[in-house]
Every structure is written in C-alpha cells, then in structure tokens.
From TrEMBL:
It holds the Pfam family Rhodanese. Residues 21-108 form the Rhodanese domain. It comes from Membranihabitans marinus. This is Rhodanese-like domain-containing protein. SMART domains: RHOD.
C-alpha cells in the first residue's frame, strides 16, 4: 500500500526540479492562505488549489511552473488541473520545504 501511495503522490525527481529552478520558474504554493502565511518559498505566489481553476490565465506564457504544497498531494492535483487546461510545463515540486531546500542548495552551490 505504501508503494502505491508513494507512486501516486511522488514528486518529480529533484534533477528535473533543479533544472526548472535554474530557469527562473513561476513558483506557486497551492496551500491555503493560512498555511502559506506560516512559511513558504521566497518569491512564491499563493494560489490555493480550490482557486486554481479560476486562475489559469496566470500560468499562460510562463516558461517553467513549479507547484508545491505541504506533502505533494495537492500539488499533484494542481499539476493535473493545469495539464488539463493546456499548461504542460509544470513540475510537482512536492513539499514547499523540498523546493526551498533545492533553491537554497542552488544558491550555495551545494
């Protein structure tokens, strides 16, 4: 069961995430405003998952999009919603901490 859930909610491997980070992505935290205000990735915008369908135009013409949340489940759904609306350059970054760590590693050269 764990393997099934891990595959279902697994994020993109970090090499793809790092490549996207290196190309000035549109960073989107899909958690609730309350969760977002408790901490997120610098320069990320908050577009909660339930508001995403009404905000599709914000994603058009973005070269790279990274979506993330608390665990990767909501960002997985966000990626699917965006793909269904023709936004295909989307990476599920998983948790906001994972995305933040990858950005910080890039900055420090680690």
């Amino acid at each position: 069961m764990f393997d099934f859930l891990k595959k279902l909610f697994s994020q993109t491997d970090n090499s793809q995430l790092i490549e996207a980070i290196n190309n000035k992505p549109f960073l989107v935290d899909v958690r609730t405003p309350g969760e977002y205000s408790s901490g997120s990735v610098n320069e990320a915008v908050n577009i909660p998952l339930d508001k995403l369908p009404d905000q599709i135009n914000k994603f058009r013409n973005k070269r790279n999009v990274i979506v993330f949340c608390r665990s990767g489940a909501r960002s997985s759904r966000a990626k699917r919603i965006l793909n269904q609306n023709g936004i295909n350059n989307v990476i599920n970054g998983g948790s906001w901490q994972n995305v933040n760590e990858m950005i910080n590693q890039r900055k420090t050269g680690g």
